[in-house]
Design goal:
Layout (H helix, E strand, L loop, with lengths): L3 H15 L7 H12 L2 H5 L3 E9 L8 E7 L3 E8 L2 E8 L3 E5 L4 E6 L6 H6 L15 E10 L2 E9 L5 E6 L6 E10 L2 E10 L2 E3 L2 E3 L2 E6 L8 E10 L15
Antiparallel strand pairs: 1-2, 1-15, 2-3, 3-4, 4-5, 5-6, 7-8, 8-9, 9-10, 10-11, 11-14, 12-13, 14-15
Length: 248
């Protein structure tokens, strides 16, 4: 005779095993992410992060050096150098500017509000997820999504500016493995997708050492890749690095 009770128990067990990972409270997920990065105390002690490495462009076989410096309070300076020419994108907490010799512009130029949006987002050294309510953002949990065969928690951040960022967080490490930045640029919606990896610790805080970026849903072969060889925290910085250069 078939034991119906045993069958019922087996059926219940099968359902439990097949069930997806349960939804997680938004703030609980963010707290786990902060702890995975090194903890709130380490983040608060972070004054600056400088990463240095190389930019790899699909199809290009020449060496391009790259550096990214972010300081607490809003300072950002990114540099890309090739054959004696250096492209600079910078932000001092109030205005963004650039020098682009590869476009024949060797003098510094102020960026438009739309053009400066990625720098303003980068300027948040903690990330918009940390103290998001205090910063005027809102966050919603969108469940699990598949990222190249890996399940990831999906968080959408509605930024105070009106733009949004969707973060994908690994359910095992609680580190961000992808974000999609959606911004309104000259009246048109623009989405940029970036994959993060090879996290290393600098002054107690984990930072990504690879960043692959391109338009949303673009093939990996069409994304440019930043590969950083070193990351240093809380080193000396000069405010003049971020301010718009003034001719003397």
């Amino acid at each position: 005779m078939i034991n119906t009770t045993a069958l019922a128990m087996l059926a219940s067990l099968a359902l439990l095993l097949a069930a997806p990972t349960p939804a997680m409270d938004t703030d609980q997920l963010i707290a786990k992410h902060i702890e995975a990065r090194g903890g709130a105390e380490s983040l608060r002690a972070l004054r600056s992060i400088r990463r240095q490495g190389h930019l790899i462009i699909p199809g290009a076989n020449f060496d391009i050096s790259a550096s990214a410096l972010v300081v607490r309070g809003g300072g950002v300076r990114n540099e890309i150098s090739l054959q004696g020419l250096t492209l600079i994108n910078a932000y001092d907490g109030k205005e963004a500017w650039k020098v682009d010799p590869f476009e024949g512009r060797k003098d510094p130029e102020r960026m438009s509000a739309d053009e400066s949006k990625p720098l303003l987002l980068q300027a948040d050294i903690d990330s918009p997820l940390v103290d998001y309510q205090f910063k005027g953002h809102s966050v919603e949990y969108l469940g699990l999504d598949d990222i190249d065969g890996t399940p990831a928690h999906k968080l959408r951040v509605h930024l105070k500016s009106g733009d949004e960022v969707v973060y994908y967080i690994d359910p095992d490490t609680y580190m961000i493995i992808r974000d999609v930045q959606k911004q309104l640029v000259r009246g048109a919606e623009q989405e940029t997708e970036t994959d993060y990896g090879e996290y290393e610790k600098a002054s107690g805080v984990y930072v990504p050492m690879t960043e692959d970026s391109g338009p949303k849903n673009s093939d990996s072969s069409h994304k440019q890749q930043l590969v950083f060889d070193s990351a240093a925290a809380n080193g000396p910085t000069d405010p003049a690095q971020f301010a718009f250069p003034v001719r003397k």
